[in-house]
Amino acid sequence: MGPNQSIEIKPLPTLRFSALLTVEMTINLHRLALGRVHREFCRRLPEAMLWVHEPGSHKKIRVVPGELRNGEVQVGKHVPPAAAALPRFLARFDEAYNPAQFSKVRQIVATAAAHHRFAWIHPFYDGNGRVGRLMTHSMLKRLGIGNSLWSVARRLARNVRDYKTLLADADEPRHTALDGRGALSQKALIQFCEFFLNTCVDQITYMGLVLEPGQLLNRINIYTQEEVAEKRLLKGSFSLFREALLFGGFERGKAEAITGYGERAARDVLSRLIAKNLLVSDSPKSPVRLGFPIDVVDRWFPALYPSTQV
């Protein structure tokens, strides 16, 4: 990772399918989204980690990055759906968690439930947990929760025993006729969702203390003054930083009005910040927003990675 490379996890495209889509079309669309995440994750693994054992026979099976499993698996006591049934289960998964049918608050709750249901389906031979956590992070980002420096996965990793226990409990069939209307325990799913959402709140609280957002603008101002003095940034940079921080971004054409400079000078200031990934955008003409290149993280968020005292 280079010194100016930004940390960025973009939201996955919203998966919305009409009732007219065939199962085959639905599974292909899932492969475009979740398969892409799985493929990007797996291609970073050594070859030795791309092999699993078939239940019963212990035959070695190679995990094909981005491809749904075509055989059966077992995870602890849980036996996920048969490979031949994956298209139907993924189609139902998408139907149940289509964000268009929920309010924003219900979408947040649905994200927690979807986290378990994806793990229960277990569409890939391996890597489902990691892909599921990336999917969940992306779903939350689409709702405006979290950013490239924040992820609920961090807290889940620090409380992995409760996380895995509650995740497995939600695999259980319903215990009584009053335990939900589906095949699985509603009570256990609610318990997992409560744990997951409390974990999100805990992590947001922690990151608020670490990042100190109320002091961020002042730290960026000090950083900018020092960089301008060393001629690494141009005068007028801070006004663009401030606009991006306070308003979430701005149109490129507004750089002139924001800096108070002429068109060419304003464009030079903006271009320098973009070249250093201090401001980023999705395309050469789209609005810009604040970036977080690796080499400024310790300056802007000094408590995020505190120096080790010797």
Write the layout of secondary structure elements.
Layout: H1 23-42, E1 51-53, E2 60-62, H2 86-96, H3 104-121, H4 128-142, H5 152-158, H6 160-169, H7 186-211, H8 213-229, H9 237-247, H10 255-259, H11 263-275, E3 279-280, E4 289-290, H12 294-300
Antiparallel strand pairs: 1-2, 3-4
Give a verbal description of the structure:
The chain has 310 residues and is mainly alpha-helical. It folds into 2 domains: 23-210, Fic-like fold (Orthogonal Bundle); 213-300, Arc Repressor Mutant, subunit A (Orthogonal Bundle). It contains 12 helices and 4 strands, in the order H-E-E-H-H-H-H-H-H-H-H-H-H-E-E-H. It has helices spanning 23-42, 86-96, 104-121, 128-142, 152-158, 160-169, 186-211, 213-229, 237-247, 255-259, 263-275, 294-300; strands at residues 51-53, 60-62, 279-280, 289-290. The strands form 2 sheets. A two-stranded antiparallel ribbon has the order 1-2. A hairpin with a 6-residue loop joins strand 1 and strand 2. Helix 1 (23-42) packs across helix 4 (128-142), helix 5 packs across helix 7 (186-211) and helix 6 (160-169) runs antiparallel to helix 7 (186-211). It starts with 22 loop residues before the first helix and ends in a 10-residue tail after the last helix.
- The amount of beta strand, in percent, is under 5%
Number of beta-strand segments: 4
CATH class annotation of the largest domain:
Mainly Alpha
What's the tally of helices? 12
- Summing up helix and strand content along with how strands pair, one would put the structural category as mainly alpha
What is the percent of helical residues? 40-55%
> What is the CATH architecture assignment of the largest domain?
Orthogonal Bundle
**Overall pLDDT, averaged?**
85
Number of domains: 2
Distance between the termini: 27 Å
Taken in chain order, the helices and strands follow as HEEHHHHHHHHHHEEH
The rounded Rg comes to: 23 Å
Largest sheet, if any? 2 strands, antiparallel
- Oligomeric composition of the shown chains: single chain
Shape, per Cα inertia axes: elongated
* Low-pLDDT ranges: 1-29
The name of the CATH topology of the largest domain is Fic-like fold
